[in-house]
């Protein structure tokens, strides 16, 4: 059965094939990720542009500026009235005057904010009189420097508030006249921006749908490929690995072992006699039982493969001595199984040989040696049916 060996060894593959077989799922994921990242970046840039346009329009929205301007005028009038009333009883109204001035100060400070100040600009020239800010600061000085406000100080505050109110009325007159035309312009710009966003959104929906369909198609094809490959990697009779499954294990699981592994060749004894005497169904039952026994004693990344009619190959993540003990357990299990009622007429025996393999590239040499040991054991068992032959290591053992 040595003619199987060259057909079992891993075929030579190119670096491109190795990369695809080992990293195909990652490559597909990376491609999809890059495409998705490109789309997201494109949409993000577009959204950023639209956001900038909207913020520009919102910041220049005169409704907000005019509302603030109106509030400032109201606060100036209210503060002027309060200071006149407070002159009759300064101590009683002092706290109320200070609180109202804090509100007025905050309102007047808002005219310096960009989204408010832009309302009062016409051809680059501000219509806000600088005296307004000066008056605010003078009133703040009166409030802050005097612990108790008297009638004279309240008179000054009322006078400042009256002057500020007159200045403020004159500064917002031009803005009120141009408000209608500006609103029309803003609405036109908003409509154009929204149309642009709508076309971008439809494009995004179409690309996203196409990308999702592509990913689904790739996944479906991948699942079908995995099913076909898994079917090819298994032996239909025993459930063990097939020759392709053995090659797959050599190229993947056992290609990463650093301390080497053991290769075992197992052969079913007297299978031809069982087929001739009891029929091929009985022979298949024996092969299935041997495959089941070998699978039971396998551990971890171990691989049990059926490579011929009655020949099995095992890749064992263990030393030669440990592997021989593992196969002895399989032999004992089969002997016990032969004595059960269902198998009382079938005598199931196996012969095996084990050799050490430092790396997958030396698999052929290790398997040849394991095959030789298996035949030596088989011949010895024919001479003494009930003896178990333990062969000493040869000088030409691979890696031993």
From TrEMBL:
Which reactions appear under catalytic activity for this entry?
Answer: 2 GTP = 3',3'-c-di-GMP + 2 diphosphate
Using the record, list the residue span of the signal peptide; answer none if the entry has no such feature: none
> Has UniProt tagged this entry with the keyword Membrane?
yes
Q: Where is the GGDEF domain?
A: 259-391
Q: Which keywords does this chain's UniProt record carry?
A: Coiled coil, Membrane, Transmembrane, Transmembrane helix
Gene Ontology molecular function: diguanylate cyclase activity
Transmembrane region positions? 27-49, 201-221
Superkingdom classification of source: Bacteria
**Record EC number:** 2.7.7.65
Which PROSITE patterns does UniProt cross-reference here?
A: GGDEF
Q: Which InterPro entries does the entry link to? A: Diguanylate_Cyclase (IPR050469), GGDEF_dom (IPR000160), Nucleotide_cyclase (IPR029787), Rev_trsase/Diguanyl_cyclase (IPR043128)
Coiled coil spans: 320-347
Q: What Pfam family is a match, any one?
A: GGDEF
Q: Which PANTHER family match?
A: DIGUANYLATE CYCLASE DGCM-RELATED, REGULATORY COMPONENTS OF SENSORY TRANSDUCTION SYSTEM
Put simply, this protein is called: diguanylate cyclase
The protein's organism comes out as Yoonia vestfoldensis SKA53
């Amino acid at each position: 059965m040595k003619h199987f060996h060259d057909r079992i060894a891993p075929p030579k593959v190119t670096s491109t094939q190795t990369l695809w077989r080992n990293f195909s799922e990652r490559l597909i994921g990376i491609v999809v990720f890059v495409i998705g990242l490109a789309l997201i970046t494109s949409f993000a840039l577009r959204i950023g542009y639209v956001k900038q346009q909207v913020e520009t329009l919102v910041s220049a929205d005169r409704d907000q500026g005019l509302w603030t301007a109106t509030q400032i005028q109201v606060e100036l009038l209210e503060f002027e009235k309060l200071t006149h009333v407070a002159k009759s009883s300064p101590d009683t109204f002092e706290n109320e005057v200070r609180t109202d001035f804090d509100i007025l100060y905050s309102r007047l400070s808002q005219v310096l904010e960009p989204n408010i100040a832009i309302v009062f600009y016409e051809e680059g020239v501000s219509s806000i009189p600088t005296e307004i800010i000066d008056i605010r600061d003078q009133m703040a000085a009166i409030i802050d420097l005097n612990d108790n406000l008297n009638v004279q100080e309240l008179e000054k505050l009322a006078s400042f508030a009256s002057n500020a109110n007159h200045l403020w009325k004159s500064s917002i007159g031009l803005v009120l006249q141009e408000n209608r035309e500006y609103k029309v312009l803003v609405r036109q710009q908003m409509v154009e921006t929204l149309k642009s966003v709508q076309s971008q959104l439809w494009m995004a929906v179409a690309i996203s749908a196409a990308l999702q369909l592509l990913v689904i198609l790739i996944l479906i094809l991948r699942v079908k490929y995995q099913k076909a490959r898994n079917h090819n990697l298994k032996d239909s009779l025993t459930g063990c690995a097939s020759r392709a499954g053995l090659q797959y294990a050599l190229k993947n699981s056992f290609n990463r072992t650093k301390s080497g592994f053991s290769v075992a060749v197992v052969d079913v004894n007297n299978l031809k006699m069982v087929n001739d005497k009891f029929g091929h169904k009985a022979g298949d039952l024996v092969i299935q039982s041997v495959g089941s026994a070998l699978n039971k004693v396998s551990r971890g990344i171990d691989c049990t493969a059926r490579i011929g009619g009655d020949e099995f190959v095992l890749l064992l993540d263990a030393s030669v001595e440990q592997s021989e003990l593992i196969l002895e357990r399989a032999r004992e299990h089969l002997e016990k199984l032969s004595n059960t009622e269902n198998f009382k007429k079938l005598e199931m025996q196996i012969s095996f040989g084990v050799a050490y393999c430092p790396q997958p590239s030396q698999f052929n040499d290790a398997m040849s040696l394991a095959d030789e040991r298996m035949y030596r054991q088989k011949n010895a068992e024919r001479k003494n049916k009930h003896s178990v032959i333990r062969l000493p290591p040869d000088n030409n053992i691979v890696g031993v």
